[in-house]
From TrEMBL, chains A, B:
The keyword Repressor does not apply. This is Geranylgeranyl pyrophosphate synthase. Signal peptide: none annotated. The keyword rRNA processing does not apply. GO terms for molecular function: geranylgeranyl diphosphate synthase activity; metal ion binding.
């Protein structure tokens, strides 16, 4: 691994944000095998986080749940309209719709729409891109779930695409969703008539470039390749490799979602780059929190499988840094993200601020 | 199957172009089991075609072989430069380069560059698109060759991507090539500085839309899905279904290659649509000739497997229409394609004319 993401550097300058008393005395290398007392402390930390989220939420007038519900509904309408239900080839369209309309919180589209709004754009200008980033996200899930990859049978509680439609259709569904995302962004009729006729085409080209870059060998695919290389390895995954995987598998598409929204909203280059930094922070934050939740969940579930006492195979931040340091890292990333929003109008920035809080403090 | 390609209609208005004496008395439904005398006639027809190609070639000053060699070399340079050889993730980049730089005639890029030139554009304006259509073509080969699809071990005489790098990397290589094609087209630094700054972004967006459309459920993927549905079916494939497969698996990307070249070259809408009709004709022609060559090859190979006398499993035009009618269809498609070029400057149209002849009269 030669070149890593610039954010990686931020890891080395984390200063402890939590009280020293709360800090773990040693890194936790095998969470699943952790004693009960320590597992209790995880829950306490998560509960504190939930309280902080509630506090953050009540501090403004912004109703995050209503906002997310409205955006998800609008994005779902756009996604539903993007694939014909009854046209041939029926098997393909059905599989595409099955995978794309399977629910989900639509975090990436919400980030895209919120970034468009924070730079002063109309959300409708970014709706085709919001749909596109969800298509790309779904494509990556469909291909990652394949038997030759992670071999997952369930996704969001439903059988995965290849289980229902077979492996060939699942490969082709991913391909079709990927090309549809670009088709959807490039079609003139995807956009409302009030976009700036002179500047719009250049903004679309730039957005498509950002989207394309975050998928291939600089993004999702690169992350999956390195993840596959690490899987089953007897050696522990070094932290720079772990961060490479997360930055590519998770953060790259979150970054593209935000940046594309800002471009289509007509943001200045300086605004776009500030939002890029915001997105990189929450992208990594997303994964650190995922790892913390994984540990918490594992320890709760341990009751059911008591006696097994097996260390989990998966490398996580808590395993490498210890849980307290992982939480400190998360706090630092959240504070970095918030800082990037400080130059924007407070009211317009509320969705992005609350999205960062949500990613930091979510319970699943 | 509800809506088929408009070109399908052309099938019903084929008038016999070959002398009545040469017409087959009955359609040939099982070519592999054909008597020797008839197999000789195939060779004669192919020889006549070769003579016609030679005649067409000598009728102008245009040196087709030199032209194709120069274009292939330029496209190969662009493809080589588009993927770093030594950067991580190494396995992915290596697999991408292995598949993309495996040789091939580069017919699609040549069509793209020739279409750009015929409308008065500089070929360099279309070079990023010429590279992109080859990336898309390669992606479709890599995914179609997968064990869960056509399960092919060899491609252009070399082991296929999944044989060399494994199935997961092959799936991801296809995904990365697909996204790279769009990244390559969207990057500003892919283009020379003399493109029309005002009109260029809109042309790129329109081109990306054409490329994206020909891949998914209106193009390559749709063709592969219907092809998979037909494979192993005991029923003979009806001709409209066969044509659907060919128009989507083969013609759609040839059409996009030509149309994108014309768009980036600054062609008028009328020119672009005429070139689209040209491309649709040669797209179907490509497949009809493939089928005729398949039959000829089969009949020649029959000597080696004499006594087997098995009808081939694959549905082809000769099987459905008979060989003579297939040739008539091919002649008609070639004449349609030539007709679309008649309004263009003769010298500038020479590459497209010769590409059509090449597709019609090629021997492999």
């Amino acid at each position: 691994m030669a070149a890593f993401h610039p954010l990686v550097a931020s890891r080395v300058r984390i200063s402890p944000l939590l009280p020293a008393a709360a800090a773990a005395t040693a890194p936790v290398y095998a969470c699943a095998a952790m004693p009960y007392a320590r597992r209790r402390r995880f829950s306490a930390i998560v509960a504190t986080a939930a309280a902080a989220a509630a506090a953050a939420s009540s501090a403004t007038e912004f109703d995050f749940n209503t906002y997310m519900g409205e955006k998800a509904a609008a994005v779902n309408r756009a996604l539903d309209a993007s694939i014909p239900a009854d046209e041939p080839p029926a098997a393909l369209h059905e599989a595409m719709r099955y995978s794309l309309l399977a629910g989900g919180k639509r975090v990436r589209p919400a980030l895209c729409l919120a970034a468009c709004a924070v730079v002063g754009g109309r959300e409708a200008w970014a709706m085709p891109a919001a749909a596109a980033v969800e298509m790309v996200h779904t494509m990556s899930l469909v291909h990652d779930d394949l038997p030759c990859m992670d071999d997952d049978d369930l996704r969001r509680g439903k059988p995965t695409c290849h289980v229902v439609y077979g492996e060939p259709i699942a490969v082709l569904t991913g391909d079709a969703l990927l090309s549809l995302s670009f088709h959807h962004m490039a079609r003139t009729d995807s956009y409302p008539p009030d976009v700036d006729a002179d500047k719009h085409p250049a903004r679309v080209v730039r957005s498509i470039g950002e989207l394309a870059r975050c998928i291939g060998s600089e993004g999702l695919v690169a992350g999956q390749v390195v993840d596959l290389e690490m899987t089953g390895s007897a050696e522990p995954v070094p932290i720079d490799r772990l961060e490479y995987i997360h930055l590519h598998k998770t953060a790259a598409l979150l970054e593209a979602s935000v940046v594309i929204g800002a471009i289509l909203g007509g943001g200045s280059n300086e605004q776009i780059e500030r939002l890029r930094m915001y997105a990189r922070s929450i992208g990594l934050l997303f994964q650190v929190v995922d790892d913390i939740l994984d540990v918490t969940k594992s320890s709760e579930e341990l009751g059911k499988t008591a006696g097994k006492d097996l260390a989990s195979d998966k490398t996580t931040y808590p395993k490498l840094l210890g849980l307290e340091k992982s939480r400190e890292f998360a706090e630092r990333l959240l504070s970095d993200a918030r800082e990037q929003l400080s130059g924007f109008d407070k009211e317009k920035a509320a969705p992005l601020l609350h999205l960062a809080n949500y990613i930091a403090y979510r319970q699943n």
